[in-house]
Specification:
305 residues; alpha+beta; five-stranded antiparallel beta sheet; 14 strands; disordered N terminus
């Protein structure tokens, strides 16, 4: 490389080597430090690599999305099989309502939630009640369970389970506050009514009879939380408790994230356990039951669609 002793630009030691570069615009040769040329080459190469990586990344992401679409499927089964836990926003968008109602459940998975009014309203299952009931539920839906209790209340004023869940103070009075909050939050037309077989009488500390009822906001059962009855009475070979129910399996939310069963709060379940006890979950996350007059958390479930 020729050296130009009269080059006046302040250079680093590495810039002492100068070359001539043709400026096509001015049609003249310009003295340029070799390090500047090297920087230009490196920048060009770096930009080219970044562009290639971006193109490749888009291709890979597209392939993954297509694979997920084909392997998981845009349906309740596929989206019930994945816990994601994504914050879906502070309200249900029109596209999210459409994804639930058309059963594609696009970008909606178990564990996802809406953060509204200081409550995380979490998706516990998709189409859990679909095609069930004495009148079939044919609306696609998401089952929602808040992460925390909405407030506290008792099942009855005294320690009795007479009349079972249907005739309890919880269902006849104490759930009204939850219904008001939920319908205000999601819109009354989006909170779906569905048919449940509920116990309405007891004998010898067991549910003894029941009927079909319209339901919208209800207390969960042991089966929905744990996947089986724990304290719930079973047949002793001579008498059969009225354990007929639609909610016969664990909600996927609690299957994938059993830690979410516990929120460090006591909350009620609706199963009759004895003449004085209903089921509940204790603040340590344990299976429990207690006096109907106890004041515990109200952590209901409901369907939106």
């Amino acid at each position: 490389m020729p050296k130009f002793d009269d080059y006046t630009q302040k250079n680093t030691p590495e810039d002492n080597d100068i070359t001539l570069i043709l400026d096509k615009t001015a049609n003249v040769n310009k003295k340029t430090p070799f390090s500047g040329i090297w920087t230009w080459i490196v920048n060009k190469m770096t930009n080219a690599v970044i562009q290639n990586l971006q193109t490749t990344n888009k291709t890979v992401i597209g392939a993954i999305n297509e694979l997920n679409s084909k392997s998981i499927g845009n349906n309740a089964g596929g989206h019930n099989s994945i816990f994601r836990g994504k914050n879906l926003g502070s309200s249900v968008s029109s596209s999210q309502w459409s994804a639930i109602q058309n059963a594609s459940f696009d970008d909606i998975f178990v564990g996802d939630y809406w953060a509204i009014g200081g409550v995380n309203w979490r998706i516990a299952a998709l189409d859990y009640f679909y095609n069930t009931g004495d009148t079939a539920l044919t609306k696609h839906h998401a089952v929602i369970v808040p992460d925390t209790q909405l407030y506290t209340a008792n099942m009855n004023d005294t320690n009795t389970t007479e009349g079972a869940y249907v005739n309890s103070k919880m269902r006849t009075e104490n759930l009204e506050q939850a219904k008001t909050t939920i319908k205000s939050t999601f819109g009354a037309s989006h909170v779906l009514s569905h048919r449940l077989y509920l116990s309405n009488a007891t004998a010898n500390g067991r549910a003894s009879a029941g009927e079909w009822y319209d339901a919208d906001v209800e207390i969960m059962t042991e089966h929905m939380v744990y996947g089986n009855g724990v304290f719930s009475p079973v047949s002793d070979g001579s008498s059969i408790p009225n354990n007929y129910r639609i909610e016969k399996s664990q909600l996927p939310l609690f299957a994938f994230r059993p830690d979410l069963i516990s929120n460090r709060q006591w909350y009620w379940l609706r199963d009759v356990i004895s003449s004085a006890y209903f089921a509940n979950v204790n603040s340590y996350g344990g299976v429990h039951c207690g006096n109907a007059s106890d004041v515990l958390g109200v952590r209901p479930y409901f369907l939106i669609g």
